[in-house]
Amino acid sequence: MATDRFAQPIVALATPYAAGALAVIRTSGAGAVEMVDALFSPRGRLAAAGGYTVHHGRLVQPTTDSGGKPGTGVAAGDEVLDEVLATVFRAPHSYTGEDSVEISCHGSPAGIDRILAALCAAGFRPADPGEFTLRAFLAGKIDLTRAEAVQEIVSAQTREAHAMALQRLSGAVEERINDVKGRLVSLLAAIDIQLDYPEEDTGEIVVPPESVREVEELLRSLLAGWRTGRIYQEGVRVAIAGRTNAGKSSLFNALLRQDRAIVSAIAGTTRDYLEAPISLSGVPARIFDTAGFRDTIEEIESEGIRRSGEILDSADLVVWVVDASTGNADTVAGDADAAAEALVIERLRAEGRLVGAWNKVDLGAGGTPPPDFLPVSVKTGAGMDELLQALARTVLPESLAWTGEPVIDSLRQKELLERALQALGHVREGLAEQVPVDTIALDMEEAVRALGEITGEVTSDDVLDAMFRGFCVGK
Question: Same domain for 119 and 42?
Fold first, then answer.
């Protein structure tokens, strides 16, 4: 990682590049306040300001007076770029630990471009993705678990996912890791004493096995939350499928509470899949309305059914909709579509991906629903609450529900926890087999090293580059 790049002040747009009421442009680095002040009117105000102060003024493209020095105020010939608020932060009391100015301007893409160009001409360089947060980490303002939480907050799709990421940003995971690491360091100190003073050796290793098991249990508890954190952060794919005219598009619209899909009694109305986001008990889900399942020679509809099959195969959960007024699809004699449908239902049931919707019960026909099918009427709303509960239970079993305890969703953190647990497993085995103390010390040090990598006490440039490359520019 080139350290000279971090010597240069940086600038980036921190809000979406789109028309809006306001936009925020961030700057950071040595001399950042003075560099922005050179474009600010009235001149000199920012340079003289203390941290945590907000100043109203204009950003200008300045001209020079006859003496070759910048003029004060908006001089004749100065081009006004925008009317802004400039918030000054002074090192080390800023997000990055460096001098910083955040500029709140009008959210015009054309205006944003002009301001960014002027700042770059003044000596700033465009920030790399995640560079503000990387600088905060390098300055010791945050550890790597909090740094990862910054991006997780940005990408959170539900309130629950946002709350989990906010908890990590507050340091909940860091505190857990540091607590466990502190216990291991204490155990390691006892081993080091025995190594340093072998003449005092009584033949007993001064590491209680129960202490190692307690540490392992704490790490396993944190590791167990990874699947919970992952599902809330990444979400699931839910496909609505079934034969034509079963009510799939109506169910799609009902779940979204808006008319997104065209609903018609004409078979084959849905030619391609539609998708939209919803929340299932706080789990973000992409829900897909697929083309009706049937044998057809119509070319466009056939392609839609083929694409729907791909969605079906990749979905975490499939809501198979059956028209209750036609009866149980498993028992319709001589119907090739019904026979093929029965095979698909059985496969989904065996894979644990099936939630069945026995639709149109308001018509008063259809008999008893087959296993895993719930009687519903999308038209009247009957049974819809039960269907939603079944969807939520399937995508989020009780064992994965968030209890409020800190959880991780970073694959990097998961793998390092596993590495620490593996090393501690070797420690326990060594204690049981009475291996040499220095061997046990090596395994204990490996566990401590893995935990240090989680928080960033020990890390490499390659790891940092890979981690921050996925961040938003401006974060």
Answer: yes
